[in-house]
Write a structure and sequence with these properties.
alpha+beta, Chitinase A, domain 3, four-stranded antiparallel β-sheet, three-stranded antiparallel β-sheet
């Protein structure tokens, strides 16, 4: 029986492949079959119409557009087999709801369609298809997809870099302030003191002891600890100085913030956003991935059970 149906479809295809359609201005256009889907066909004019409806989209490859049309035919056939067709009443209610949400009456709606070069009947056909495909998608794809927290946590652990925040740097400083309106001699004197401290630190003297001995300013009370800061929040002179340092290495003397600084890089860390903060984002990502995979698998099963010829 199936072979008989396919044979009949083939006869129709051969016939339609040679149809000559006259246009309104009298010129002749040759239409041809570009695909066979079970006992249905898709013609070049069908494909061209589909592309015209997508005129606002980026330019698409003909074969990709055709593959999408084939997928939709397979899904519409599946809907018919399981009795998921959209009734005329349901279509009318959906159309009325669309007009209501857009504050349009029938005449205004027809005018809006005309601007898009669509008739009401064409729009109804498209809307019926969209509603049917949505029902199928919900039943055969979306309803079977679920994500639990264990999956989300595993994804989080496997992709920690994705949820990393900018590096944070912790440094200590010895700060020697300059007098207000310092003369060149005063500036040189403070710099020489900072240089001497730098040399002592480089030779291995305890940095915290040097802080307690000579440093002034706010951080002196915290043994020079500047705390963790993102690079962009550090003074440019200090950020540049510690950029090439490894933890434990020292830079200086640096003139900034009204004085001279000797800096020791303590630690660099890459903080990661806590799981609870990104949980919803991860759950959404995993859900979308699983929906896409389920949809592709379902489409492949429809294709495997069907006779398809792509003639482009």
């Amino acid at each position: 029986m199936r072979n008989a149906i396919l044979s009949f479809a083939t006869v129709i295809v051969i016939f339609l492949s040679n149809v000559m359609q006259s246009t309104a201005n009298g010129s002749v256009v040759v239409d041809r079959v570009v695909a066979v889907v079970n006992d249905e066909i898709i013609t070049m004019s069908d494909l061209q119409r589909e592309e015209s409806l997508k005129k606002h989209d980026a330019k698409q490859d003909d074969r990709l557009v055709l593959e999408d049309m084939i997928d939709r035919k397979l899904q519409m056939a599946a809907a018919k087999r399981v009795g998921m067709d959209v009734t005329d009443k349901e279509l009318a209610e959906a159309l009325a709801d669309i007009m209501k949400r857009n504050n349009m009456d029938s005449k205004q709606f027809d005018a809006a369609l005309a601007k898009e070069h669509l008739t009401l009947e064409q729009y109804k056909t498209e809307l019926r298809e969209q509603m049917t495909l949505s029902r199928l998608f919900n039943k055969y794809v979306r309803s079977g997809v679920a994500i639990d927290e264990a999956e989300a946590r595993q994804f989080y652990q496997n992709n920690l870099k994705t949820y990393s925040l900018p590096d944070e740097i912790r440094a200590r400083q010895i700060f020697l302030p300059l007098p207000e309106n310092a003369t060149m001699a005063q500036d040189a004197d403070v710099r020489n003191k900072a240089l001497a401290l730098y040399e002592r630190a480089k030779k291995g003297e305890d940095f915290i002891r040097l802080v307690r001995e000579a440093s002034e300013g706010v951080t002196a009370k915290q043994d020079g600890d500047m705390g963790f800061m993102q690079r962009e929040h550090m003074l440019p002179e200090i950020e540049e100085a510690v950029r090439m340092l490894k933890p434990g290495e020292i830079a200086g003397p640096l003139k900034c913030a009204g004085g001279y600084n000797v800096i020791r890089l303590e630690e660099i860390r890459t903080p990661v956003q806590p799981f609870e903060k990104v949980k919803d984002e991860i759950m959404k990502t995993l859900y979308e991935q699983k929906v896409e995979n389920t949809y592709r698998s379902w489409l492949q099963s429809l294709r495997s059970d069907s006779h398809i010829e792509n003639r482009l």
